[in-house]
Amino acid sequence: MNRFRLASIGTIALACCCAAEAFAQDAEPADRVQADPAAPAPKPQRRTPTRISLQSGFTYTTGDYDRPVSTDVYYVPLSVRLQHGPWRARLSTSFISIDGPAAIVDVLAGETEAPVNVPGYAMQHRSGLGDVSLQLGYRFDIARHTALTSDVRIKFPTASEAERLTTGTTDVTLRTQLSQRIGAFTLRAGGRRRFAGGDGRVTVRDTWGANAGASADVGDGIAVGADYDWIQSAFGNAPGSTLHGWVSAPLSRRWRITGYGGAGLSSNSPDYEVGTSISLRIN
Fold it and tell me: Which of 26, 27, 138, 236 is the most buried (most CB within 10 A)?
């Protein structure tokens, strides 16, 4: 017992000595700084802020998608976006209203893919909340004016299959985009691969997509641009092909509004679409 007590006392004493020595080593530089008034003050560490923004808007699309009857789609995207340094995250959903026989594949947070016709779909009005998507991305600054952004997005089938507001599958999309700034102009091009889940009532194929665009800063925070999008059909029909134009302007230090329009260039694209989005930066 005495040996155990002596060993315990010795261990505690040794730990106290080590802690005191470590504290003295940590405190010594601070003591030197205080004792030397000519020494420069240590620079405060800069913390990377986490920026939060909210976004909503309204979009209207119409097209016959190579069918006798046109389909009109109205939707209001809702999303919250977080940015911390090079990291980006977004949680999105939308409210959708459809008049016509075409089916929605994916219409989330303003990122529209053309509705695709499915055999047996009848003319019907339906509406409700759309699917929920979670997106996580990272921006790589390759050079001073060159960046590569990659992200993964998961679409969860939370919308109603009975109302045909979803394919009923959990999809995973991998995307990457390269951007190059040249003076007031920015050029960009990218691609994506969607892996469709097999848990829905409708068979959905994996698809490839590509996009390219350019924009220009015209002063006072106003930007204009044009983008081209191409994507394979999820049901084996003709690919979707759409050309968009947009203009974005600040309303205040925290508010920003964007207006856009587009025209379909293929039979499986909307004839045209128009919309607007507004964003609020929380911090």
Answer: 138
